[in-house]
Amino acid sequence: MREAFGASFGVEPGYLNTAGIGVPPDFVAESLHAAITRWSEGRISAAEFDEPVARAKEGFAELVGVPRERVTAGSSVSQLVGMVAAGVAAGTSVLVVEREFTSVTFPFAVQRDRGVRVTEVPPDRLLEAVPEHDVVAVSLVQSADGRVFRPEELRAVAERHGVRVLLDVSQAAGWMPLELEWADWVVGCGYKWLMAPRGAAWLATRPEVLELQRAHGANWYAGQDPWSNLYGLPLRLAEGAGAFDASPDWFAQLGAAAALDWLRTVDLPAVREHCMELAGTLCAELEVPSPDSPIVALDATHASAELSAAGVCCTARDGRLRLAFHLYNTEDDVRLVSEALRRSSSAPLR
Hints:
Blueprint: E1 2-4, E2 7-9, H1 26-40, H2 50-64, E3 71-74, H3 77-87, E4 93-97, H4 102-109, E5 117-121, H5 126-129, E6 135-139, H6 151-161, E7 164-168, E8 185-189, E9 201-205, H7 250-263, H8 268-286, E10 295-298, H9 304-309, E11 315-317, E12 320-324, H10 331-343
Parallel strand pairs: 4-5, 4-6, 6-7, 7-8
Antiparallel strand pairs: 1-2, 3-9, 8-9, 10-12, 11-12
């Protein structure tokens, strides 16, 4: 059992896989257990989940710094980006970085029959390439290696040249303080740093570009009054971002509401400092460059067995080991990794 920022976590020492799956505070898991128990006893109703859906939207809005009324609730990043990609004009030129997570790139790439063009550039060329395109779509923190793109720099060049911006904050929201009201689209999933169950994701859209999206997943929950719009035509979608809501994954939204309610009360600058200090300490001990984020990517796949034997849980991504520190991690986790790597072969890290 660990205590962090006023919450308890059942996470075991060595868990460094938040970039893949975040671990919830105990009270989040307990709320799900209680709901599943009521479900198994036939004491549950669909309408009771409307309130958690709304709370989770509010939590996401606050954590990324956008107004609540801009937020659409969905189930995954790719599903939400797909609505954006389906609505951009034929012939739109979309800029992405090489090795970007495919939930950001694939939804645009499948629009090639409409002439939508997706161009990859090396990460260090992103800003200089922005003026040549109509839309730039990028993860604020890169999944594979934790590289961070500074939002203020991207905003400055995009606004100067009239380029639309889609930001994926799946690897940023929950540890990085964010103020992204300026971005055209902000998308993120809940099951990583937000410590919610998989099946909850959100998209914040600026009003100026809302009409560009296509509600190709239009459903009863996106109606003006969902419970009065279950049957028949005509089409009667909600006004604003609600017109793009997906029919919710009840338990994922319930857990997300609990997790985000709590995260809204947490000192995120302190969370960032805590995570970066741990990641920086590990890099210093291993004599590798300081990280941009709490994600540390190491050329150490040779040490996978040694790390696993030591109780370290991490993942291999893009040919490297990926370790991720969150608010529930401690110096004990740093020690487990550094000692295991010393016991492994002496292949260089970088």
